[in-house]
Amino acid sequence: MIASNRRQWVFLSFAVLVLLVVGLLILVVAPSSRAGSSFDSSPWGTQQFYTYLEQQGFRVERWQRNYNNLRGKGHVLLQMSGRPIGWPPSLVEWLAQGNTLVRFYWHGEPTAAPFAERLSTPQGNVLVETRRRVPVQQGDRPLLADDHGLIVYLRRSNSPHNHEQRILGVYPWLVANVYGGESGLANFAVVAQLLQEVAEPGATIYFDEWLHGYRQRTPEDVVSETVPQTLFDYFSRTPWLAVGLQFALLLLFLLWQQSQRFGPPLLEKEPVTSNSAAYIEALAGVLERAQQRQFVLEQLQDRFRYDLAHQLGLAANPHHLPRDSELMQAWQTATGRSPDSLQALLSIPHSIDDSQLLKWLEQAASVLQALKGAV
Q: Of 73, 116, 120, 201, which has the highest C-beta tally within 10 A?
């Protein structure tokens, strides 16, 4: 049993260790909430793309304030994230003034497209590593597409009072660091060409760092950033993937153990039936119903004589008991007391009821107990 419990604890400790290792791997390998930021130099960041645009002569800035501080028109805001992104009213209002939003994020539906596909463009090959595509809709202008659907597309507002433009991409990491530098890919060049087409001369291209948690604090921002503006904003700040995966693994482990984590199940022991006790109880019931108290008293007196003779040192067995006179004389010698009380216990009355029988049992037990202390 001890060895079995030890094995159970060792296995439980090993399972907890595996959960911790898996959680750490998720945190290290998977894109973090900073992925897509121009401050991030990891493979999922856009630091190299920010530098590339500067070298190409674009006017670029990092936006680290709330969207209600955006001003002007003809500008471009870049948002790149693997997490859901909401539509704050202040951002929508700024876009309606004639600005452009470039947002690369997960959306669309999985298709039969290959996971890693190189698309040929005038600037070179563009690598896209996702099967997601968006069906062509009326009013959408394809900017990067294949036979399975749209990858990057331009969507304009149909309202005469809304002059916004949205360039949407189904792959968040289209201009991530991993596709720049010495990769030989044209991802940076293709997106830079798109920005040049939609941005007005002298316009600013803002990299949205507010989305990734970077803050240029103002008194107004301190109030607004403490409370999530939308439900998507709340979920984007919480590492639900790591928490959910560890919880699922722990739940599977508990189900596999079937709630027997501390050893094998304890089986209920069946009570051992005593044949002698059952016989005595049955016989007692028969004698009680037959009103045979006299017979019961005779049997108890014989047992009393045997126990008394045994304690007094008289030779006796259940079939050859000493005479009552011998017992009373030996008892008087051993205790120094009158044998009258003993004689009352050895005599057989003509009739006896239940209360008298119980009283006789108490007196007999008292005599035997007193004799133990005297001998």
A: 73
The neighbouring-strand residues paired with 144 are: 152
- Count Cβ atoms below 10 Å from residue 38 Cβ, excluding itself: 23
Q: Note whether 175 and 102 are within 8 A (CB).
A: no
What secondary structure, in 3-state letters, does 127-170 show? Answer: EEECCEEECCCCCEEEEEEECCEEEEEEEECCCCCCCCEEEEEC
Question: What's the CA gap between 43 and 41, in Å, rounded?
Answer: 7
Whole-angstrom Cα distance, residue 38 to residue 35? 9
Alpha helices in 237-349 (DSSP H): 240-257, 275-289, 293-312, 324-335, 340-346
C-alpha radius of gyration, the chain, whole number: 48
Instruction: List CB contacts of 310: < 8 A, sequence separation 6 or more.
Output: 316
HSE-up of residue 162 (Cα within 13 Å, Cβ side): 13
Closest residue by Cα to residue 125 from 190, 169, 175:
190
Helix (H, G, I), strand (E, B) or coil at 320: strand
Q: Which helix (H) or strand (E) holds 356?
A: helix 354-374
All structural domains of the chain: 34-238 (3.40.50), 285-374 (no CATH)
- Residue-level pLDDT at 208: 97
Q: How far apart are CA 115 and CA 212, in angstroms?
A: 27
Q: Can you give the pLDDT at residue 37?
A: 94
